[in-house]
């Protein structure tokens, strides 16, 4: 089981937050706090796809460049990207220049529009899969779950790409569908409070 580690400021946090200087801010202010904003949800599922086979540190360091390259991940804008857009992005040194992942992001934007038309929002779709807190594994002990597998299966059926169960689970951790901060982490209670106050879509 993963445990907490005392950081330079004397506060206990999830051990992974010590891996890189920019992780602590991300860990304290973003990771695990519940999100219902479709743009943010779309950005995160795309960035998790780009992370596939890489480290999150690489993606986080390039996040602002990704936002510029993909119009701040505004879904309808990304959906209008074309072949010329892909070729241009493949020359962008600020992002991960992987044709398959770039094309998947554009494809997923189009599929996201279809999903929003059907469900009302991406948030409504994703939060439908929120697990019962009493039925989740201990924090940071697994990399997939029955919910992440179910979401992955449904998204793939709808034509989404680079949304495997592990990618989706990382998305669920980050977007607050579960509180995966370890016991003893100074942020765990803050996330729990945020989840208790959060209005599910």
Compile the SSE list and pairings:
Layout: E1 4-6, E2 12-14, H1 23-29, H2 38-51, H3 56-61, H4 63-69, H5 75-79, H6 83-89, H7 99-119, H8 122-127, H9 146-157, H10 165-174, H11 188-197
Antiparallel strand pairs: 1-2
**Anisotropy-based shape:** globular
Strand content: under 5%
Low-confidence stretches: none
CATH architecture classification name: Orthogonal Bundle
Mean pLDDT: 96
Q: What summary fits the major beta sheet?
A: 2 strands, antiparallel
Q: Strand sequence of the main sheet, in spatial order?
A: 1-2
Provide the CATH superfamily: Hypothetical protein, domain 2
InterPro entries: Adenine_glyco, DNA-3mA_glycosylase, DNA_glycosylase
Protein name: DNA-3-methyladenine glycosylase I
Pfam families: Adenine_glyco
Organism: Sessilibacter corallicola
Summarize the structure.
The protein is mainly alpha-helical. It has helices at residues 23-29, 38-51, 56-61, 63-69, 75-79, 83-89, 99-119, 122-127, 146-157, 165-174, 188-197; strands at residues 4-6, 12-14.
What descriptors fit this protein?
201 residues; mainly alpha; Endonuclease III, domain 1; 2 strands; globular
Describe the structure.
This is DNA-3-methyladenine glycosylase I. The protein is built from 11 helices and 2 strands. The chain has 201 residues and is an all-alpha fold. The protein has a single domain, classed as Endonuclease III, domain 1 (Orthogonal Bundle), CATH 1.10.340.30. The chain has a two-stranded antiparallel sheet. α2 runs antiparallel to α7, α2 crosses α10 and α9 crosses α10. The radius of gyration is 17 Å and the shape is globular. The model has no long low-confidence stretch (mean pLDDT 96).
């Amino acid at each position: 089981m993963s445990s907490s580690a005392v950081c330079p400021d004397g506060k206990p946090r999830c051990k992974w937050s010590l891996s890189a200087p920019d992780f602590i801010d991300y860990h304290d202010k973003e990771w695990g706090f519940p999100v219902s904003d479709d743009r943010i949800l779309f950005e995160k599922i795309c960035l998790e796809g780009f992370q596939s086979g890489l480290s999150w540190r690489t993606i986080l360091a390039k996040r602002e460049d990704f936002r510029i390259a993909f119009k701040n991940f505004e879904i309808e804008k990304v959906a209008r990207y074309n072949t010329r857009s892909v070729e241009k992005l493949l020359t962008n040194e600020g992002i991960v220049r992987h044709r398959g992942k770039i094309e998947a992001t554009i494809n997923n934007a189009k599929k996201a529009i279809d999903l929003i038309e059907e469900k009302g929002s991406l948030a409504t779709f994703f939060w439908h899969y929120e697990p019962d807190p009493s039925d989740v594994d201990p924090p940071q002990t697994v990399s997939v779950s029955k919910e992440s597998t179910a979401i992955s299966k449904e998204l793939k059926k709808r034509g989404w790409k680079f949304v495997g169960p592990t990618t989706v689970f990382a998305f669920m951790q980050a977007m607050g569908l579960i509180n995966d901060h370890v016991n003893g982490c100074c942020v765990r209670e803050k996330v729990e409070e945020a989840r208790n106050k959060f209005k599910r879509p």
